[in-house]
Amino acid sequence: MHYLKSRNIAVFAVVSLCLFALSTYLLATLSGVENMACVQAAYFTGLNIFINLLISVMVGLSVVNALELRNTAKYSAGSSLFGSVLLFLTSFCASCSLPFIAALGVGSLVNFISFNHSWFQLIAVCLCLYGFLDSHKKVTKQCRVCQL
Predict the structure, then answer these.
(1) Max CA-CA distance within the chain?
(2) Are 146 and 139 in contact (CB under 8 A)?
């Protein structure tokens, strides 16, 4: 099993812990939406911490798979990367914390993500899970499409 190599364990630990620490810091310090108002640390709940831990682990495993596949042209990290970006967008209310975003013309989209952050967290988990499973199949050579 390639996950048990000492280099892969170290890479997984560093990536997962850094991503989890950063996302938990964002949850604890930045504003979130609660009762239609910007409240500091509104998204700092047990469920959000668990979701951040889950996504951090999946992204860490996907990075390990990417390192195993770095010499081949079979790996694409798009879904894991997009899922981790969604994780950060659902960790805080961007319109509360970054008011200049409205000047860029994406304020309504960011507000939509902030008010419906639970659904976007579910999408982020699904994207990261798909990215991890896809890369795992390629590493273990169980991918039918990759063998063509």
Answers:
(1) 54
(2) no
User: What is the gyration radius of the CA atoms in the chain, in angstroms?
Assistant: 17
- pLDDT tens, 72-103? 655 555 656 676 677 666 766 666 666 666 66
What pLDDT, in 10s, does the model give residues 117-134? 788 888 888 888 887 887
CB 56 within 8 A of CB 23: yes
Q: What share of the chain is helix, strand, coil (3-state, %, to 5)?
A: 70, 5, 25
pTM: 0.71
What are the extents of the domains in the chain? 2-139
Write down how long the chain is.
Answer: 148
Distance CA 48, CA 31 (A): 14
